[in-house]
Specification:
Structural class: mainly alpha
Number of helices: 5
Strand order of the largest sheet: 1-2
Length: about 120
C-alpha cells in the first residue's frame, strides 16, 4: 500500500464504509489515492458552482473544462465492483441531472464522444 490511508485523502462525501473500501481498493490498484473524491468535488464545482461553459469545450485543456473529472468518475464507475458502483453513481447522478438541465444536445457532436461532451450551453 502507499501509506495514504488518511481519511482526508480517501474521502468521498456521502459514500458509506463498504463502498468506500471498494473505492480505496480501486484507487490503490488502477487509479491513485484520493482521485475519486477529488473528481466528484471538481465535477460538482464545474457544474453546480461554476457555469456549464466550463464543461462544454471552450478550451482545449480538459482539466479546465471540467471534462477530466467526469471522465475519471466514469472510469471509476465502470471499474468498481457491480455492487459498489451504484453507491458512487447515486452521488454522481444528481450532478449529471443538473448538468443535463443546463445544457442541450449538440447535434453536430461526434457520436463517439462521451455524453457530457455532446452538450451545448442553453441560452441564458
Amino acid at each position: 500500500m502507499c501509506g495514504a490511508h488518511r481519511a482526508l485523502i480517501h474521502e468521498v462525501p456521502g459514500l458509506g464504509r463498504r463502498p468506500m473500501a471498494a473505492v480505496i481498493a480501486l484507487e490503490h490498484t488502477r487509479m491513485w489515492p484520493g482521485v475519486v473524491g477529488a473528481s466528484l468535488v471538481a465535477w460538482q464545482e464545474a457544474v453546480l458552482i461554476g457555469t456549464a461553459d466550463r464543461v462544454v469545450g471552450r478550451c482545449l485543456c480538459e482539466e479546465c473544462t471540467g471534462d477530466a473529472p467526469r471522465r475519471r468518475l466514469h472510469r471509476a464507475l465502470t471499474a468498481l465492483p457491480s455492487w459498489a458502483g451504484p453507491y458512487l453513481y447515486g452521488l454522481v447522478l444528481p450532478i449529471d441531472h443538473y448538468y443535463l438541465s443546463r445544457t442541450a444536445p449538440n447535434p453536430y457532436a461526434p457520436p463517439d464522444r462521451p455524453w457530457w461532451q455532446r452538450r451545448l450551453i442553453r441560452p441564458g
